[in-house]
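Supplementary Methods, section 5.1.

A reviewer requested that the exact input to the structure prediction be made available. We therefore reproduce it here, unchanged from the version used in the analyses.
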Amino acid sequence: MFYFANMISTFSAFHALFLSTLLMQIGTGLFNNYMGLRLSADSVSEIWIGTLLSAYYLGLVFGARMGHHLIIRVGHVRACATAAALAICLVLLQTLIDEKFVWLLLRFCAGMAMVVQFIVIESWLNEQAENKHRGRVMSVYLLMSGIGTALGQLSITMYPTLDLRPLIFVAMCQALALLPIVLTTRTLPAPQSPAPIDLAYFFKQVPQCLLTILLAGNICAAFYGLAAVYAVKQNLSTGQVAVFTATTVVAGLLSQWPMGWLSDRVNRGNLVRVNALLLVGISVMLWGWVDWPYWMMLLLAAGMGSLQFTLYGLASGLGNDRIDPERRVGLTAMMLMAYGGGACLGPTLAGTMMRLGGSHMLYVFSSACALLLFVTMRSAKK
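The structure derived from this sequence is encoded token-by-token as follows.
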């Protein structure tokens, strides 16, 4: 009972930000599944699918600095409203233009708009969360993100013909996500000083944080962009594909609170290393050595989700524990740049590997990233 009461208390403290995250990610989860299935149905190659989805994450990289400056200039709420309006227009444009090269540009611009909203929410949470509660606050944030993504993944089953209606639903989610932010009565973050993003400072102060997020971006984006393609190649139906991808996400969200609670009590850096080692072991089992039954594939998917989706929260707590408060917006921008950089590379590299070596190369790629993280990650002070 105390466990759930503590979670509810954390949710209540930042409910507007968490609800906004939930709605944003419902749209994102639906969009990613829609893109993978729609392009696969049109016989588009895995390399092109990966490249198209990477454009979104490249937008995250380039938009992070813009978001940092926008928040400093007009504040958190106005920056979020501006970015949400742009994101809605970009999604709706895709219903009017059915051309892959134009979609590539639109997804890049959408990434720039979305990263501003992420910076607003994450920096707001980290500014007002104490270090001893930071893991739990971030775990609820990622829990809401995971629930939204899972609901979005599952909602593709409402559109078996894969027409343009899912994009309308995505735009509606973006519009609704803005309401909790603009209507909140919670104390706003303090005005930010016009400090530039000092790359050298962050690389020196929080290298473990940025490394973890970079590799987590590779793993998670490859999953979001290509897991549906992988599942289709295993001869799964559209419903089974949705359940497979959603199982991974749901397992990740169910692990957020326990991992966040644990990270407030033990060394976050050591948790990252253990997480990475277990991730290597489970992903190896999806290399194609064995033709697993469907129930076993779901079990392995759950193991992957519980590990890969908790890396970001661990890294965020690790980084925010070690910097000055006035640097939090800059750190959030840097983390999203690192995540976006990894997420930009992940789908393209994994898509190329799948094209050359088969669908199972998605999990070969994931295990390689996790092994690199385990080998290079040094123990960090909490």
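The mean pLDDT is 82. These observations are discussed further in the main text.
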